[in-house]
């Protein structure tokens, strides 16, 4: 009898278990997953209630199909919204309007078209690259918003990295160590989260596009045609063009900026090398000021808006008018005009170095170049003569300051050695009246010795303008401990900045205080040999000035000796501490040459240019 063999018996199965349910398929399509991308629990560990027919393990999506569908579609919609937000995000806060986000981004259309034609592996790589890139560009847009809000210009990806250290120092000085650390950690977490979420969003959308390629192709063609049409017709919504190429413009502008920075480095090095006063002998420099005590004073954020903006000017102008009268009564004459600063909102050191070097210092690269060079600074010219003691009063300096060598100062008093024992006023380490009182005590009021040339930085008008000090009797200043009660009674900066209308008001009060301090000092301690040059370093932040303010700052010269002002009679400056709207406007870098020329021989003359 022939030997019969039996085929192995296969387990019985439910035919339905071999098919993808309509619910599962809908979920997978909404998520952009292929069927084999679902997750399953190990069969051995899955509880019985989670097993389907034949013992197959049911995934989370099988057990909660309706919830899974909603979550998947919500995630897809949020991914699309995040990508669209990044593609249409403006670079200034004023651009955050509904119309800005009702536009058609050409980069999104091009990106969808590329994902449609790429093979699966290349598509995944492209999606990750696009997500990371879009995340970085979004971070760059946020940086631009911050820089426009504070410095009235975009972020420079080549030169501005060093400013983050200054921003951290500002936070530490204003909000304390814990506040600064918390803010830095928060920013880093947000940046990482943005990069991760943007990448996940683009990857998800790429899967959806792949699974629904027919619908995606039609939508892409429709949007592409619409973009061309609205661009050709110049269609707008609330003044904003419907067609958008934000990302392309952002990338293009940054490429141009990098090229310009590299080119500027070479051009500036050549410009800095040429100096008509480099070889002027000491005995031919500043001959018109010999025997005078010359004080150069910068008032923080003292800009043209302070004396012309209707919200601010009445109080400031009253102080300037009263100061002109009081100084005239004390025997002083005054002249004033405008200088155009290389910076706005911040970056005071750029203005200081521009005035003193006679070069246009509008970025960190130029600042580093000039302060490490042997360029003759205006203050350094006084030191070269040997006829003056040169001193700096720098209450805003809280750590080592190697750039001080460039300014030619024999001695620098900073926040650590001015003897102050009072409280900080937000960022400002001490009130301006105290800084001037310390200057009188440490240097100006000491009898005998050479005349004094000093550079003084007044910081009480530094952002955030709360709390503010107030004028007290000069004999009350002491070691500054008297300011404890004044500081406690001042306004909270958070409360001030919470109300946009209060910001320019408090800024105006800060400028008034700084001006009163300086005018009162000259009135009380000035003498027949006093010459004061004072000016603003830059305009305040756009929250005060608006977005289209000039970069002009007031400048004034105060002198007791009529011969001092006679030397500048050809400058055309106006009488008084307040320059009028028709007063001359010079670029700040022009001041050094004009000053050295008017108070000494013309550069390049036979008497002033010996052989090297």
Automatic annotation (TrEMBL):
The chain crosses the membrane at residues 70-89, 101-118, 125-143, 180-203, 215-235. Gene3D superfamilies: Alkaline Phosphatase, subunit A (3.40.720.10). Residues 16-36 have a biased composition (Basic and acidic residues). Residues 1-10 have a biased composition (Polar residues). Keywords: Membrane, Transmembrane, Transmembrane helix. InterPro entries: Alkaline_phosphatase_core_sf. Coiled coil: none annotated. Residues 1-58 are annotated as: Disordered. This is Sulfatase.
């Amino acid at each position: 009898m022939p030997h019969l063999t039996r085929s192995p018996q296969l387990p019985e199965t439910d035919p339905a278990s071999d098919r993808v349910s309509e619910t599962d398929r809908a979920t997978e399509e909404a998520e952009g997953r292929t069927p084999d991308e679902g997750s399953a629990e190990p069969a051995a560990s899955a509880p019985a209630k989670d097993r389907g027919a034949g013992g197959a393990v049911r995934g989370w999506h099988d057990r909660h199909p309706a919830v899974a569908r909603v979550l998947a579609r919500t995630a897809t919609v949020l991914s699309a919204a995040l990508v669209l937000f990044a593609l249409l995000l403006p670079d200034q806060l004023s651009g955050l309007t509904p119309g800005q986000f009702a536009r058609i981004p050409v980069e999104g259309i091009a990106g969808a078209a590329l994902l449609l034609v790429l093979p699966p592996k290349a598509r995944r790589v492209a999606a990750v690259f696009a997500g990371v890139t879009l995340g970085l560009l979004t971070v760059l847009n946020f940086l631009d918003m911050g820089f426009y809000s504070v410095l009235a210009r975009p972020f420079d990806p080549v030169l501005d990295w060093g400013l983050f250290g200054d921003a951290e120092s500002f936070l530490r000085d204003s909000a304390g160590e814990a506040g600064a650390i918390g803010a830095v950690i928060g920013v880093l977490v947000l940046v990482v989260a943005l990069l991760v979420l943007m990448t996940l969003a683009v990857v998800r959308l790429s899967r959806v596009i792949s699974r629904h390629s027919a619908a995606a192709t039609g939508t892409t063609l429709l949007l592409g045609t619409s973009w061309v049409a609205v661009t050709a017709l110049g269609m707008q919504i609330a003044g904003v063009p419907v067609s958008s190429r934000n990302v392309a413009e952002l990338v293009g502008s940054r490429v141009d900026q990098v090229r310009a920075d590299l080119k500027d480095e070479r051009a500036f090095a050549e410009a800095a090398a040429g100096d008509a006063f480099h070889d002027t002998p000491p005995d031919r420099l500043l001959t018109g000021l010999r025997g005078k005590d010359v004080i150069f004073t910068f008032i923080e954020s003292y800009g043209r808006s302070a004396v012309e903006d209707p919200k601010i000017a009445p109080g400031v102008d009253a102080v300037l008018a009263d100061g002109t009268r009081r100084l005239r009564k004390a025997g002083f004459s005054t002249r004033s005009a405008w200088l155009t600063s290389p910076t706005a909102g911040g970056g005071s050191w750029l203005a200081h170095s521009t005035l003193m070097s006679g070069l246009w210092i509008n970025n960190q690269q130029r600042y580093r170049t000039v302060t490490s060079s042997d360029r003759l600074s205006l203050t350094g010219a006084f030191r070269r003569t040997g006829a003056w003691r040169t001193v700096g009063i720098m209450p805003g300096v809280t750590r080592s300051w190697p750039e001080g060598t460039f300014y030619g100062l024999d001695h620098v008093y900073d926040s650590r050695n001015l003897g102050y024992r009072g409280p900080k006023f937000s960022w400002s380490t001490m009130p301006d009246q105290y800084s001037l009182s310390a200057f009188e005590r440490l240097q100006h009021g000491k009898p005998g010795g050479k005349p004094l040339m000093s550079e003084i930085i007044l910081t009480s008008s530094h952002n955030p303008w709360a709390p503010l000090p107030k004028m007290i009797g000069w004999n009350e200043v002491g070691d500054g401990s008297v300011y404890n009660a004044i500081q406690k009674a001042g306004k909270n900066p958070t409360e001030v900045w919470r109300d946009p209308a209060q910001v320019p008001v408090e800024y105006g009060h800060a400028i008034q205080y700084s001006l009163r301090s300086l005018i009162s000092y000259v009135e009380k301690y000035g003498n027949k040999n006093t010459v004061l040059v004072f000016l603003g370093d830059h305009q305040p932040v756009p929250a005060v000035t608006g977005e289209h303010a000039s970069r002009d700052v007031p400048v004034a010269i105060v002198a007791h000796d009529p011969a001092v002002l006679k030397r500048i009679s050809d400058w055309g400056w106006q009488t008084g501490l307040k320059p009028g709207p028709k007063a001359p406007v010079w670029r700040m870098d022009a001041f050094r040459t004009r000053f050295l020329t008017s108070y000494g021989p013309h550069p390049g003359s036979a008497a002033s240019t010996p052989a090297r």
